[in-house]
């Protein structure tokens, strides 16, 4: 529950430190699903100091909060989120070359921008990430991956604020990465930046690979509709999309939500879907796949509120 006094205090601190605050902000504007009611307030963190200070204040005062990157892996409740949403702006969205073949990137940088920055500097390793519509923070949190690449494989270290506002840096080896998981999934931390270790490459070749992977995405994925990407994690040894397709669920709709006809692994917002529509559809998919194929699908999308 959000306490009024604490709420006023964190808003005052945010404004004093120069962070923009939006009240009753519709979360559908901050998720690629284009779904979600209002949050109580959205704070745009602009520096490492303001981020650590406000994040620890929220934690110490038990103010409900969530860090949102590009909202490309989130499904937010129709009734919204009665708390603070932190998003990253300003210096948390900067990038620079750093050491031999390394890039230091703020957690708020979009992966597409980071991959282009690497390509322009003839650095290879992030081609796989070019088409993932998330930020560096969200990608580290989720250990995002595609086409054989994974964030954990190109990371050297990550700097974050813990819930007490201490700034810490851990090496990639210490972050306990596995399929779509990192240490951050089990602890409340705010990722501030990430140091990537890449290899020297040919910028033309890097561009070609990025173009080819983007072409594959456009061909296979329903990018013309809002979604949160793959709805389910890949079960051991099979593809979720294949199971869903084989169970005859392609095209199944609940309200405005639909199992994509182009890629059964995606639930799309076909026509003003609500969070409830998506949740009901997810439940039907899970129970049908369990019953007909014997697999327990696990949601990859994070449900908020
Ligand atoms: C069309 C489409 C295609 C996709 N393709 C892929 C794909 O190929 N591979 C893949 O892995 N994913 C894919 N995704 C899913 C999604 O893009 C990734 O999971 C991405 O890494 C999420 O990043 P985000 O910034 O949007 O995070 P969000 O969705 O905003 O947040 C995801 C989680 O990360 C946390 N988080 C975000 N930023 C921070 C931070 N700075 N500090 C602490 N916690 C943070 C959030 O609290 C939340 O728990 C796809 C999604 C879409 C819509």
Features:
Uridine Diphospho-n-acetylenolpyruvylglucosamine Reductase, domain 3; five-stranded antiparallel beta sheet; Uridine Diphospho-n-acetylenolpyruvylglucosamine Reductase, domain 1; globular; 305 residues; alpha+beta; Uridine Diphospho-n-acetylenolpyruvylglucosamine Reductase, domain 2; 3 domains; binds flavin-adenine dinucleotide
Provide a brief overview of the structure:
The chain is of the alpha+beta class and 305 residues long. The protein is built from 8 helices and 19 strands. Helix content is 30%, strand content 27%.
H/E series:
HEEHEEEEEHEHEEHEEEEHEHEEEHE
Strand content: 25-35%
Head-to-tail CA distance between termini: 12 Å
Helix content: 25-40%
Number of continuous helical runs: 8
Largest sheet: 5 strands, antiparallel
Ligands, ions, cofactors: flavin-adenine dinucleotide
State the name of the first-level CATH class of the largest domain.
Alpha Beta
Count of β-strands: 19
Structural class: alpha+beta
Radius of gyration: 20 Å
Task: Describe the protein's architecture and organization.
- The longest helix has 19 residues, at 275-293.
- The model has no long low-confidence stretch (mean pLDDT 97).
- Helix content is 30%, strand content 27%.
- The protein has 305 residues and is of the alpha+beta class.
- It is globular.
- Strand 6 and strand 7 form a beta hairpin.
- The chain has eight helices and 19 strands.
- It has a five-stranded antiparallel β-sheet with strand order 6-7-13-11-12. The chain has a four-stranded mixed β-sheet with strand order 1-2-5-3, covered by helices on one side.
- The chain has three domains: 4-91, Uridine Diphospho-n-acetylenolpyruvylglucosamine Reductase, domain 2; 94-206, Uridine Diphospho-n-acetylenolpyruvylglucosamine Reductase, domain 3, CATH 3.30.465; 223-304, UDP-N-acetylenolpyruvoylglucosamine reductase, C-terminal domain (Uridine Diphospho-n-acetylenolpyruvylglucosamine Reductase, domain 1).
- Helix 1 (4-16) packs antiparallel against helix 2.
- It starts with a helix and ends with a strand.
- The structure holds flavin-adenine dinucleotide (FAD).
